[in-house]
């Protein structure tokens, strides 16, 4: 079972995400979360998926795509750090990612499939990481972070956005 990272394994701005991950079997948590997100977004119509809870906020389609994009990037960081790469991995600007796409024109079913593919790729990566590799540390966006902290950020980030959707959009 993947152990929760200690506070010295990540930058303080990740505390909120990591705190959203419940105790328990990490893989089961990711699987349950995938099911919850797919169920929630599958119930939306195309029109509902274009809704924004305030001017300038992302549409529901953009939120789902953002979850997928972020998980892709974090899984890549997880892979590199777990494999011992000490290169400072670059950051990314989530707003530029959204501004330079047309997710609102993509069918919702395709965005859901994309999220599922990304999540399944993350789940496929996990068994390839050795027990000792989980505590390896690297640098991402100039901040030190462990492999297991990144894994918890993946789950916590998706959970954060699930809460935002439930609170602000539905």
Which residue ranges are poorly predicted, with pLDDT under 50 across at least 5 consecutive positions?
A: none
H/E element order? HHHHEHHEEH
Mean pLDDT score, rounded? Answer: 97
The biggest sheet amounts to: 3 strands, mixed
CATH topology value: Four Helix Bundle (Hemerythrin (Met), subunit A)
Provide tags for this entry.
170 residues, mainly alpha, Four Helix Bundle (Hemerythrin (Met), subunit A), three-stranded mixed beta sheet
Explain how this protein is built.
With 170 residues, the protein is mainly alpha-helical. The protein has a single domain (7-169), classed as Four Helix Bundle (Hemerythrin (Met), subunit A) (Up-down Bundle), CATH 1.20.120.450. 56% of the residues lie in helices and 6% in strands. The protein has a 3-stranded mixed beta sheet. It is globular, with a radius of gyration of 16 Å. The mean pLDDT is 97.
Task: Map the helices and strands.
Elements lengths: L14 H5 L6 H17 L3 H4 L10 H23 L5 E2 L4 H6 L8 H18 L11 E4 L2 E4 H23 L1
Parallel strand pairs: 1-2
Antiparallel strand pairs: 2-3
Helix pairs in contact: 2-6, 2-7, 4-6, 4-7
């Amino acid at each position: 079972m993947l152990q929760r990272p200690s506070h010295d394994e990540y930058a303080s701005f990740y505390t909120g995400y990591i705190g959203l991950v419940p105790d328990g079997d990490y893989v089961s948590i990711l699987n349950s979360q995938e099911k919850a997100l797919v169920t929630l977004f599958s119930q939306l119509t195309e029109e509902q998926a274009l809704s924004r809870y305030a001017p300038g906020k992302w549409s529901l389609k953009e939120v789902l795509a953002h979850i997928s994009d972020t998980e892709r990037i974090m899984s890549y960081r997880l892979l590199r750090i777990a494999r011992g790469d000490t290169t400072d991995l670059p950051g990314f600007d989530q707003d530029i990612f959204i501004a330079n796409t047309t997710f609102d024109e993509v069918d919702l079913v395709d965005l859901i499939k994309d999220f599922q593919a990304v999540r399944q790729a993350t789940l496929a990566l996990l068994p390839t990481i050795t027990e000792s590799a989980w505590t390896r540390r690297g640098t991402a966006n100039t901040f030190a972070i462990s492999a297991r902290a990144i894994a918890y950020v993946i789950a916590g980030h998706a959970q954060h956005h699930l809460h935002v959707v439930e609170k602000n959009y539905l």
